[in-house]
Amino acid sequence: MTQTRADGRRADQLRPITIEANIAPYATGSVLIGFGLTRVICAATIEPRVPSWMRQQGVPGGWLTAEYSMLPYSTLDRKSRDISKGKLDGRTVEIQRLIGRSLRAVLDLEKLGERTLWIDCDVLQADGGTRTAAITGAYLAARLAVQKLLEAKVLAENPLADSVAAVSAGVYDHELLLDLAYVEDRDAEVDANVVMTGRGRFVEVQSSGEEATFSQEQLQSLLALAQKGLVELAAAQVAFLSRHLLTRQA
After folding, report:
1. I need a surface site. Which of 25, 67, 172, 234 has the fewest CB within 10 A?
2. Cβ atoms of 233 and 159 closer than 8 Å
3. What's the pLDDT band for 1 if we cut at 50, 70, 90?
4. Residue-wise DSSP of 103-119
5. CB contact at 8 A, 142 and 44
């Protein structure tokens, strides 16, 4: 992996990661996360109620749900708001569900109690990897929100059993690349999004060929490349939380 990319990165190098805390002061916890030029506001709000279907079915514990949107000015050509079309597009629904699944994989819903943890991810600027940045930032927003409830003694223990992050990898111009920017993602022969916990357990692997096929060896190489990036993202999450939590536990 010696190829130098358009932005100067090595093939196995993440884009610069930036994280700013408390970007949305009325949310219980929030961050502005940047993967290079991609920037996403991730906000977590905890409400003292659960969905009606949980009450009706007698399901114990709480719930987590996610919403995702790309702001009209986040792309080069203005993107219409979903509300103006009267429905969510398929991509939005897919990403919302992915964010929700990823966070629920590390959340003990019974420890959350009868509460709903809302995750809102709004893309300010899109340059590839918006879903992976959203997942990585959503965990941090959720962890900040949980900390507030722990400090207020609303929660007896942390319901987040592990961290979670996501990154893309792909085959572009016959090279394996980590953390694809838009121009790479647009023209990639193979594109993968990988979600993993801080302890190295996979939550989800999405991989597809774009008018191409890929071998088992390529898939294994993409997973290994993604794992390298995810270890680095998990370390960045720990470093961020060590600066912003009263405790050192991430």
Report:
1. 25
2. no
3. very low
4. HHTTB-HHHH-S-EEEE
5. yes
